[in-house]
Each structure stands twice: as structure tokens, then as C-alpha cells.
Amino acid sequence: MHASKPTRARVTIPIDGKDEPFSPILLRDLCKCPVCIHEFTRQRLYSTTDIPPEIQVRSVTIVDEALIIHWEHDVPGFDAHHYTSISLDTLRGICKTGIAPGPAQVSLPKSALWDASSAGVPDFGYKAYMHDDATLLNVMDRLHSHGLVFITSVPTAEESVSAIAERMGPIKDTFYGKTWDVRTVPKANNVAYTSADLGFHTDLLYFDNPAHIQLLHCMQSSSTGGISVFVDAFKAALDLYAADIDAFNVLASLRVNYHYEHPASHLYHATKPVIDMRPLRVAHTTYDNLPDFLQASESTRKSLKRSAGAELPSLDVGDCLEKINWGVPFLAPLTLNSGSMEQASSSSTSTRECLNKKMDDWHAAAKKFSALLGRPEGLYERLMKPGECVLFNNTRVLHARKAFDSSDVGKARWLRGTYVDKDPFLSKLRVLEYKSEEASRMALSKGCVDEVLA
């Protein structure tokens, strides 16, 4: 079967009874032949910018659900025998969603908000987690969707927390070390190393990129106090959006400072909003507030569906949340950022008054958010026992600890902790999802063949 004659500007490809126009540069960029993509590294052997703007299609043929293209004015260094093969499924994906399907495009579970009544926090056995990839996938899926799971029957060995973490990805090394202990020490350099009540917080707020997953393995528990408390800060943020959108916008736009200030050894500092949003961008426009972005996004989605049949998902507020940055122990004094300085310089308002207003606005909004975080009906509480390890999304699920009696002789609370970053976590999750989907496809295909042969 031959496609209709291509033009220089667009190549028209018949897909499912409809002529679909494609840029020849786009089609050339999709080439995965061994001359374009290294067989073993799977990395490109040419640059997209090497494609001549005058590239043209010499011939287009569709064979066995694949598009075969020979080129005119191809990338310099490629001879006349070079051709590009693209599956029609790839082109269907581009037509529907604007994304070429592939291993990196596997479906990941959507975020699910929770409170105490709906948390349903699951426990997974250590042996199954360590030796069964299906269990590992279930754990990582749950971390991605809800942000909180427990591993039980963990050996009370110091290296156990490392073994659990490394099933998901390499450990994040920090100035605390690859792993660290949470227990009471004299002259502690972190409030976690005291027996005091520890409020809700994100770890490593003073890093530009805090750890994504935190692990805490209970080696020894106190008989008095020390209960671990968790809350879904995404739910609190969305509840704030529904109750007071102005307060939400303040926490999503005003940047505050976090630090770890020990001048003799470490001086970490980061500036960020409490509610970190994904880029609010539609086409070439970036939006300053969430309502305008959501309205523009939905309008564009409907327009693309009408004009091109594109099947793009609707976005809601939860889809726009990236991180929650919250932690009283690590707050540094509020300062003016560049936007506030520009506001002061372009008006008669003094820098002092700009800072006054920023503090007043942030304080009022933060108090409302803090109240939502502390609602009893939103909290998941658990007195961890030796052999239990909690895994949670450090940038979504805030954790706290109730005070305990440090004089509890012989039963002092002791946890072992470590971190995993987001990139390796998501990479491992995609690999597991891809293998699972491939196994399902193969099983379905085998079932169809067996049915035909029966």
C-alpha cells in the first residue's frame, strides 16, 4: 500500500482511514535505525539540528503496519540507501496525544488523596519485597499514588535500611552520610536527635532538591511516646485551595528561606514557596495563578479535540502540585526576593514595608495551612515496632514524631534512616511497569494463539 504523494511542507499519511499530515523533520527525527541509534547504548548518533531544513521524502510505503520512508536531502553523511521505519502505532499516539509511545511513556498511577479514614496504609513483607519484583512494583506504585507504605519483618541489622532503599535506586548521600541514626544524643545538631516533640516537616528543605523517598527502619522503640505521625500535605493544600484560594496563592507564590546553619561545618540555604507547583504553561504562555492556568488548559484541550481529535486528559489542581516545602525547624528569616525588590523600586513603597506585607500575608496563609495539616481526621499515627520500616514521599507526606521519654532505660528509641532521589525512583518504577505491561501483552498474545490452535 502506498501513501498519497508527499509535499515538501508536510507528508500526508493515511491512518485508520484519515489523511494525517506530518512534518518531514519530525518523521526523520523518529528514526531508530542502527545508523541513527547505537545498538547497545541506545543513544543518538546524530543531532536533530543536523537534519537539513530542506529535507524531503523521496518515497513513502506502508508495509505490515509500518511506515517506510526514503529521504531526499537527508542528514549529511547518510547515503541514499538509508531509510526510516516508523510503526503506525507511534503515529497514532502522536495524533491522539502528541506523544510518541515508548517504554518511557508507561502509565504510572495517579495521585490519590487520603486522610485517616481512607489512608489504608499497607504492610508488605520484607522477604517478598526483596526477592519478588511484583511486590516491589506494588510498593513503588503505592508510594507514587499515596506516598506511604510499611515494610514488616525487617531484620534488625544496621544494613537492612540500605538493602530496602537500594531495591528502588541508589542511596542519596548527604552530610549526614548514606545512612544515619535517629536517637537522642547530647548537644544534638538536629531536633530529630532530641526526645522533644517534632512537628510536621519535609527533610532536607535547605537543599535545592530534597530527597524524594525517605526510609526509617525501627531498630528499637521507646515504651513511652515516640509515636510517628503522617499527613497527606497534598490533600491539605487542595483543601486550602477550596477554602481560601487567596491563601493558597500566597503559599504558592511567596518564596521563603530554609537553612541549616552550623558555620563551623555546614551552611546550607534554599529559597522556595511552601506549595511548589509544576510549570503553569500552556503553549507559549506562562500563568501566574492556578485558576487562569486551569481555565486556559481546559480551553486548549477542548479546542484540540474539536480541531484534531486529540485525546488529552483534563487537569485538576492535584495534577499541578509538585512538592510541599514545610518545616518549622528549618525556616530562616524572611527576605525580599527579586520580584518583591522590583515591586518596591517601581512604587513609593519602601523595601521595609514590602517585607512587612510579605510577612503578614505569608503568616496568615501559613497559619491556615498549618491548621489543615493538624486536623485529627487527617492524621495517620503509628507506634513503630522493631522490624518495621516506613517508606514515604518526603516531598508530599509530611512526618512528625510525638515526644518520648529519653530516660526510658534500655528502651531508647532508635531508627535507621536513608534517602532515595526522585530520578532513580521514577526510572526503576518505569522499568517495572514496562516489564509488567510487556508480560501482560505476551500472556494475552499467547492466549489468543492457544485459542486459535484449540
Overview of the molecule:
There is one protein chain. By secondary structure, the chain is of the alpha+beta class. The chain has 2 domains: 11-101, 2-Layer Sandwich (NE0471 N-terminal domain-like), CATH 3.30.2020.30; 111-274 and 325-454, Double-stranded beta-helix (4-Layer Sandwich). The chain is built from 11 helices and 21 strands. It is globular, with a radius of gyration of 27 Å. The two termini are 33 Å apart.
Summarize the helices and strands and which ones pair or pack:
Layout: E1 11-15, E2 18-22, H1 24-29, E3 56-63, E4 66-72, E5 83-87, H2 88-97, E6 123-125, H3 126-131, H4 133-145, E7 148-152, H5 160-166, E8 180-182, E9 198-201, E10 213-220, E11 228-232, H6 233-243, H7 245-253, E12 255-262, E13 266-273, E14 275-277, E15 281-282, E16 285-286, H8 290-308, E17 321-324, H9 338-345, H10 351-373, E18 379-382, E19 389-393, E20 397-401, E21 414-420, H11 422-453
Parallel strand pairs: 6-7
Antiparallel strand pairs: 1-2, 3-4, 4-5, 7-19, 8-21, 9-20, 10-19, 10-21, 11-18, 11-20, 12-13, 14-17, 15-16
Helix pairs in contact: 4-11, 6-7, 6-10, 7-10
In short:
The protein is α+β, with helices and mostly antiparallel strands and 454 residues long. The protein contains 11 helices and 21 strands.
